[in-house]
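Researcher: Hi, I'm a grad student and pretty new to this. My advisor asked me to get structures for two proteins we've been looking at. I'm not sure of the right format, so I'll just paste the first sequence and hope you can take it from there.
Model: That works fine. Here's the first sequence with its structure tokens right after it:
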Amino acid sequence: MQEIAIRVRLREQERVGLAEYERIVGSVATVAALTAWLPTPDARLVIRGRGAEPVRLETVSYGSTFEMLVVLDQRSAAVERAAATVAALIESVRYEHVEDDVSGVAGELDRLDRSAPRGRSVAERSLRAFLEGARADVLARKSTTRLRAASALVRLAEEAAEITVERVEDALASELTEQPVDVLADTGAAVVVEPVDGIEAPEEPSTPKRDELGTADGKQAKQKSKDKDKDKDKDKSKDKDKGDKKKSKKKSKDKDDKKTKKKAKKK
């Protein structure tokens, strides 16, 4: 099985200093640990230490884009679905300002909760419960591991991060070979991620248009009616010919009868 990786891309970044670099790396690593925890919500959430540290972490910046690849020490499909759930959550708030100075952190978490995927998988239900719990910690003024992990999620949302889920062939290779993971359908255990080209509608059986009916079927109907009319005319002409023949025969017979009567009188 291949290791699961999360690629985080931050665009329109100014020059990243050491403090900012550490903050971004810490946020991404925390979200990666949260992703690995979502399929097992009854377990203890650990964001630092054994079981939470990634296998490999690579960063690169080009222009105003900062990109980070985090390879998790995870291979299960459940963690892959959890990563897709987090990616769908961040994608849902990419084009709106998550930060709300009036309502504070509680309002930011509440907005994330409203935007979270509403599927019935363990990862989706765990993510919603996690956000609700973190919001309760804020209102209760508690500093918890859950709140720290939720704050890292909020920071990525504020930065309009782009998250993609990938599979890595060999995490210890000198050069990584990644393959993007596509989650296509919602079966109650997966996240709905719409394809790039959109969802194709099923093809409907083609029905002839009115114009086509007028040109094709209409011509056939007209031709049939013409043929029927011709047949009727032929039948009428035949009947007329028969009647004419009968009349002519009758006339000739009457003439013959008259001639025979005249001959009989002369005699």
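Researcher: Oh nice, that was easy. Here's the second one.
Model: And its structure:
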Amino acid sequence: MLVRIGSGVRVTVPASTANLGSGFDSLGLALGLYDEVEVRVAPAGEIRVRVEGQGAGRVPTDERHLVVRAVRSALSSCGVAGLGLELVCRNRIPHARGLGSSAAAAVAGVAAGFALADRELDDGVLQLAAEFEGHADNAAASVYGGIVIAWQDGKDYQAIRLEPHEELAPLVFVPETESETKTTRGLLPEQVPLRDAAFAAGRSALAVYALTTDPWLLLPGTADRLHQEYRRPAFPATMALVDSLRAAGIPAMVSGAGPTVIAFPRGGHLPDEADLSGFTPMALPIDQGGVVVEPIGGSANPSEGAKPR
């Protein structure tokens, strides 16, 4: 397959929150905060990466960059190899905060690679992107938008998309401190008590109902005994904010692996006494469409996120 030097695409990909209480590695929600990546084909052997915004000056700007690796993975799956790449990454999703920045980068790279190889976006985007993560909840939300339920069968990652309830009004509280997923995962036990596993099963099912049908049930639906308490030593301020918001009747939980907090206050309003010291609040809409790809220069028919089965 011949890919023309200089051809390029622009990818817009949403942030995500995952777990949503007890839905560990299985529930995700796409948020209206976006990274934008431009990928152009360069002469063989050339890798040029410019990063603006989040991560600038900190992330690799060579072949180690996650978007570069994801583009190459996608191109390889399409039988294309040996291309040079030129990337411009305009990052708005905070890094290492539990808002799916790495999943968004992987999704952006895979979607760009498919587009450059003239392959329609399909479920293969999720498969390749999730392989970089080791779980599919964040990646599926960035691919499909809305609410997702993700799972794994052997080596196959799969997900379905659900429609969020119209009254959901997410607020995220982003601290300055960062957290590495691999570090916070190391705090989790290999086994949990049976009563906690049963609690998680019931509450994650209730969370799906609350997110799609009855937001009044979000407070009990987002309760968790599976992972948040084990992570408390890594970010005590995060858990203190979760505790205080929930005590005030507001559904609040750790976003992904933390340390960001996500909450769903009725009408988007917080009590006056809420102490947000050390956190930056952001009201974010729910992204409905997932990843979008268009040729650089614009297109009347952009390629939107893959449609899950």
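Researcher: Is there anything I should tell my advisor about the second?
Model: You could mention this: DSSP finds nine helices and twelve strands in the chain.
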